[in-house]
Amino acid sequence: MTAPRAPLRPLDDALAELLGHAAPLSRTDSISTFEADGRVLAQDLVSTLQVPPQDNSAMDGYAVRCADVAAVGASGASGASDGLPVSQRIPAGSAAQPLQPGTVARIFTGAPVPGGADAIVMQEDTETLADGAVRVLRAPQAGQWIRRSGEDITLGAVVLRKGVRLSPAELGLAASIGLAQLPVAARPRVALFSTGDELVMPGTVPPEAMKPGAIYNSNRFFLRAMLQRLGCEVSDLGIVPDRREATVQALREASASHDLILTSGGVSVGEEDHIKPAVQALGSLDLWQIAIKPGKPFAYGRVGAAHFIGLPGNPVSSFVTFALLVRPFLLKLQGAGAITPTTMRLPAHFDWPRPDKRREFLRVRRNAQGGLDLFPNQSSGVLTSVAWGDGLVDNPPGHAIARGEAVTYISLSDLLA
Ligand code: AMP
Ligand code: MG
Q: How far from chain centre, in Å, is Cα 185?
């Protein structure tokens, strides 16, 4: 007797249910701002100062009072004009004295504007006279080339919100308000297992000595790298042992010290494998058939306090289901706010006349003409398609694509970030 076939589930439903299980972890870390790239902020960051702290010069030049320049006349406006003496020199990092009336101050980019000055004249718009006085060649506008205190960040402003995933610009922004340490969500602890008796680890058997039916374990390499990019602490537990008791034991041990147990392979309908009964013996397991191609089989369950996710074994299916489902799950565990990748509409420079009934994620690459080329072999076993491609086309169920048509593109660099 065959098990009754579960109806295929739309991806969005499966994702919503999966995210419903992803309660954010309560553990947080305080880490060096230098180390925080890719981590998720656990608290709002509030500025305790103005940035910039004082009005400062945007140019190398002279701080002036516009009225004083007008009084001696700018060159060209009233013919020959007199210069104004230079009363102080203000390099960046030094404190300025109030500007003496009837004078200008030599000033450099980033240096504080002296009290009383109301404009900066760039040095290219000046001429130094024989007596050292400075003649302004173009009448200044009040406020020109002054960067105002607080024009970037005001005192008390929330600079970055809890749930933001930090990237290089955010690290710089946090540093600009004086933060050397940042509160971030703890790294999810993930135990990674592979299943499948055909799998051989690269390095253990050379290609020419591989037995018939044996293949190298490739999923383990990209899954581990993708987990690490998502900020996870990965325990790579290798290939699940071939015996039921050993599998139960391995899963039980992993569940005690991990937030997620992730496996690839062995989740196809009706497949005999050790993972399924072992997870069921220790907790619960739902096998889902998701209406996407590649990537139909997917399993979610619990082993003790740990989440369990089983990915399909076919490398492209494993890759795509990780990107579409596991990635948002892990970001939500870290309390990240924005977890859906951005999409854009781009013209297909290919035909796709025989679409699948399921929603497809086609491996494509942007070309120099601003369109998308399709990798010729879209089989779920062909990992070359993902390495060649730079994105996925999210193609609705049953939709044939005609060359020139706008399609929905998701960049792999977004999905791998
Ligand atoms: P399964 O989901 O276990 O039925 O596997 C589907 C296909 O993916 C089979 O051809 C497996 O040999 C292959 N496969 C499973 N796991 C891996 C892996 N870790 N690396 C490469 N191929 C795999
Ligand atoms: Mg298998």
A: 15
Q: Is the CB of 220 under 6 A from ligand 1?
A: yes
Residue nearest to atom 16 of ligand 1 (CA): 313
Question: What is the atom index within ligand 1 of the atom nearest the CA of 194?
Answer: 19
Q: Distance from the CA of 195 to the center of ligand 1, in angstroms?
A: 8
Cβ neighbors of 54 (< 8 A, separation 6 or more) are 112, 113, 149
CA nearest to 325, candidates 22, 12, 15: 15
Amino acid letter for position 324: L
Using one digit for the tens of pLDDT, what is the confidence trace for 243-254? 888 889 999 999
Answer yes or no: are the C-beta atoms of 353 and 400 closer than 8 Å.
yes
CA 204–ligand 2 middle distance (angstroms): 20
DSSP designation for 33: G
Considering every ligand atom, which ligand is closest to the CA of 297?
1
Q: Which two tokens stand for residue 135?
A: 């003649």
Q: Using DSSP bridges, classify how beta strands 199-200 and 189-194 pair: parallel, antiparallel or unpaired.
A: unpaired
The values of phi and psi at residue 315, to 5°, are -55, -45
185 beta partners: 28
Distance in Å, CA 385 to ligand 1 centroid: 16
Task: Ligand 1 pocket test: pick from 195, 199, 298, 321 the residue with the most ligand atoms within 8 Å of its Cβ.
Answer: 199
* 317 in contact with ligand 1, CB cutoff 6 A: no
pTM for the structure as a whole? 0.92
Q: Is the dihedral of CA 327, 328, 329, 335 positive or negative?
A: positive
Task: List, for residues 198-236, the tens digit of each pLDDT value.
Answer: 999 999 999 999 999 999 999 999 999 999 999 999 999
Counting beta carbons within 10 angstroms of the beta carbon of residue 403, is it exposed (0 to 12), middle (13 to 18) or buried (19 or more)?
exposed
Closest C-alpha to ligand 1, atom 14: 313
Among the listed residues 100, 10, 1, the one whose alpha carbon sits nearest the alpha carbon of residue 291: 10
> 411 phi and psi, to 5 degrees?
-75, 135
196 lines ligand 1 (CB under 6 A): yes
Contacts of 408 (CB under 8 A, 6+ apart): 343, 344, 345, 393, 394, 395
